[in-house]
Each structure stands twice: as C-alpha cells, then as structure tokens.
C-alpha cells in the first residue's frame, strides 16, 4: 500500500506520481495507492472564495473519477505534517508519494512533510509532473536559468517530451473499505491538544469522499460563476479547441470577443488535465495541420499554442529560481519606483468604472466569470501600473482573489511583465493606449458591450472615442457610464517620468 497525496494534480490520468504509486508505471509490483487530499489550514489562509469553490468542484470530479474506478478519495483536514504520517500508519503504507509543487511556500511545506515522515521512518517520493520540463532541466549554455523567453522556447521546443503517464488500474487503487478504516483511525483525533481560533479543540479530520462546503472552510460562495471542473470537462474543452480553433489561434487569439483560445487555464492550474496528455494532443493537431486539408500557415498556428504551454513552464522556472518575485520586483530599479497608489483610482479600476471601456469590460468579466481574456489582462494591467501609476502588487492581489486560474508563477509573471519589472518584461516606455487597444482588438465593441451594459446600443466608434467626447455628449450617449477617471496622455507622461526617476535618469 502507498499513500498518494494530491495537491495541484486533481486527476487520475497522466499523473506521474500516481502512476508510480499505483503500479501503473515502471514497477508493476507497487501499489495499491490510497489517494488523499488534505485541507491544510495554512494554505487556506491564502485562498479566496473563487478558488475554494473551484477547488471543491475539482475535488468532486476527482472523487467521482475514483469511484468509477472502484475506489474513492480520502479527504482529510489538518497540518499535512501530522495528517500524512498518521494516515500512512493507519494504512500501513510503505511510502507517501506526491508530485512536486515549485512555488516557494509549497516547497517549505514539503520540506516539513519530508522531515515528519523521516521522523517516523516512512519512505517518501516526489515526482516531476506539472510541467513537461522541470525547472532545472532547461538552462543557458553557461548553466544559468533563463530570463529571456525566446531562448528558453528554442530549447523547450527542441527537447523530447515524455508520453502521458498511464492511468491506474482498478487493482492499483485501494478499495473503499481500506480507505474507510484509515479515515476512522485518524478522524477526530487531537494531536496537539491545541485550541483553534474558534475556541474548538484542534482536531484532525478524515473521511472517504466527503467534501466540505465553502462555509465549513470559512469561505462564502463567490459572486462569479467559476465554470466547469474536472478531467472530463478539460478533455472536452481541449478536444473542441483542437478540432478547429487551434488552426487559427495565432491570428485570432488577441480578439476577446472571438472564442479563439482554449480556456484551459483553470484546468491546468488545478492539474485536472496532464500537460503530457495536452501536449500529445497538440502534436496530433500539428500532424493534421501539416496535411493538405488545412491552410498553409496551420502549423504555425498550432505552434503558437504550444508556445503558450512553454510560457507557463518559463514562468514556473522563473518562480522556482526566484521565489522572492512573489512580492518583490524581479528587475531592480536603481532608485526604486515611486508608485502613486491612489486608493480611489485603484477602487474604480477594481469595480470596472474607470471610464475606459475595454478596461472596465475586462474587470467586469473578471468579477462575473473569474476569468479574463489574455489581451485584456495585459490592457488592464498596463492601465493600473502606467495610467494609474499604482504598484503592480495591488493588481496581483486582486487577480489572486478573483481569478479561478490564479497561478502564482503565471499571475506574477504577467503582472511583472506589464509593470516592466519582470523577466523579459515590456520595456518601461511601452505604454498601451487603452482606447487604441480597444479599437484594434474589439473593433465592433462586442466584448465591451457584453460586459458593460451601459454602453449597449451605442455605435462602436462612439465607444472607442469615449475619452474625446464632451461631458454633454457623454451624458446624452450613456448617462450611466463614467467619464474617464484620468487623462491617458497626461498619465503616460507621468508614468515615463516615474520610471525615468526610478532609473536614476533625472
Ligand atoms: P490559451 O491562450 O488557450 O493558452 C493555453 C494555456 O497556456 C493557458 O491555459 C495557460 O496555462 C498557458 N498560458 C497562456 N498564456 C500564458 C502566459 N502569458 N503566461 C503563462 N502561461 C500562459 N495565466 C494563468 O494561468 N494564471 C494566472 O493567474 C494568470 N495571470 C495573468 C495575469 C496577467 C496580468 C497577465 C497579462 C496574464 C496572466 N495569465 C495567467 C496568462 C494568460 O492570460 C492566461 O493563461 C490565459 O488568458 C488563459 O486563457 P486560455 O486558457 O484560454 O489561454
């Protein structure tokens, strides 16, 4: 028996650690595996309503998948350093197995778990699973981690990729009775006698397949609809996307009103689809792209999609090698950046009431769907940092709270790119004009009017000229929609001056 600890890999298929622990991998004598998810209070401290809802949906899908395979999911709560050794003892497991999580906090937690297991002589094993090439695998010729994406991509794309990991067989998974006995053995035990915040004795909890509600964990139901979860939904989405949209991906991906991207990010974040499986499917699409039935540029379109998978791995290795970027600029400015940080402007940005239609549409999409289109993420991030001159950390914190796909590495990478403080970032003098961006990428204002009802029925031209209209014209056209809270041209100059000062240039 082996205990398999799920974290950001909520799937049974193409799961490297689970394949090993269940005997589906190279060593068929291993297994069966008892799968567990642990609600860790210190991780929940950093969670949000959106992400708790999305996590619970992902866990429900995983549990159902295990049930269909004749097993179930153990659901425990407590500090993994206490829970895992106890569960391992209750199951008489010879090993605890998991897949690596590369963020700084997770690595600290894992070090604690390793020590706790060593102390009771339980073997443990950690696998690379979340990315095709682990963060140490791709380095410059001088042996350093990459900070420039284009060079990283070149090596990433040239390297051989592993095949998807085999799914566990029914015999490779612990049966429900064994899981129930283990859950009973640890449930309700009080390892420390400590008293939790609520005044109740701190207890360990474990059950089979019994998931808490958000309220049990101290969270509310989110305002946003977090969308579907689980491996089946992810596969459906990937298949749909690779059926047609991928062949026009590069040409269409920047237009938020067109359904031109995969919308797989939350599935990747929770690991509901394996990256080897996804990549193998893109290779099959590439083979089709190279056939005569597709336009000549179809292979480049598919490759552009593979490039996004590589961006995810690029930022994973940036975070792995520089865990401090979570709160600090990757790129240091000589004098430090003197952010303006006006609370009212930041609040208007969060509410989607800046008077810049594409910015407001994006912020409202985030509120309603816990998602935002990539082009629009870039626009709203540029607006916050370079029009409102607000520290990127305000934006990062807001995204972290609201995005269902919040991923520390990608979110941080995206924000620091926009703020010109990151690896391979936008140069500081490159400042998006939010009106031109709206006009170029949402010419008919379809995306804008989907999320900003106050502007419905207006000519797209009028919407894209909103900042140039007189107060009377605005009042006549859309009385409920705000006037621009800042003047883009003035703020552009102020931003340039702010960065130049930071660079010690004046
Ligand atoms: P697709 O275009 O279909 O791309 C496929 C997959 O590639 C995505 O699901 C994602 O896993 C990965 N990917 C795509 N673009 C990027 C990118 N620029 N960087 C890293 N990986 C990428 N992505 C997140 O997954 N989580 C975040 O928290 C996040 N925050 C962001 C914040 C900012 C300010 C910016 C500018 C970008 C952020 N991104 C983030 C990257 C990107 O916007 C999303 O991955 C993408 O919009 C998700 O939609 P999709 O699945 O349809 O993407």
UniProtKB/TrEMBL annotation:
Q: Which UniProt keywords apply?
A: Chromophore, FAD, Flavoprotein, Lyase
Site Electron transfer via tryptophanyl radical: list residues.
Answer: 339, 392, 415
Q: Which InterPro entries match?
A: Crypto/Photolyase_FAD-like_sf, Crypto/Photolyase_N_sf, Cryptochr/Photolyase_FAD-bd, Cryptochrome/DNA_photolyase_1, DNA_photolyase_1_CS_C, DNA_photolyase_N, Rossmann-like_a/b/a_fold
Cofactor annotation: FAD
Q: Where is the Photolyase/cryptochrome alpha/beta domain?
A: 1-132
Q: How is the cofactor bound?
A: Binds 1 FAD per subunit.
Q: Does the keyword Lyase apply?
A: yes
Residues the entry annotates as binding FAD: 249, 261-265, 305, 308-315, 405-407
Q: Where is this region: Disordered?
A: 213-232
Specify one Pfam family: DNA_photolyase
One GO biological process term is: nucleobase-containing compound metabolic process
Gene3D superfamilies, A to Z: 1.25.40.80, DNA Cyclobutane Dipyrimidine Photolyase, subunit A, domain 3, HUPs
Origin superkingdom: Archaea
Keyword flag Flavoprotein: yes
Under the GO molecular function aspect, what terms does this record hold? deoxyribodipyrimidine photo-lyase activity; DNA binding; FAD binding
Q: Give the UniProt family note.
A: Belongs to the DNA photolyase family.
Q: Which PANTHER family match?
A: CRYPTOCHROME (PTHR11455), CRYPTOCHROME CIRCADIAN CLOCK 5 ISOFORM X1 (PTHR11455:SF9)
Protein's name in the database: Deoxyribodipyrimidine photolyase
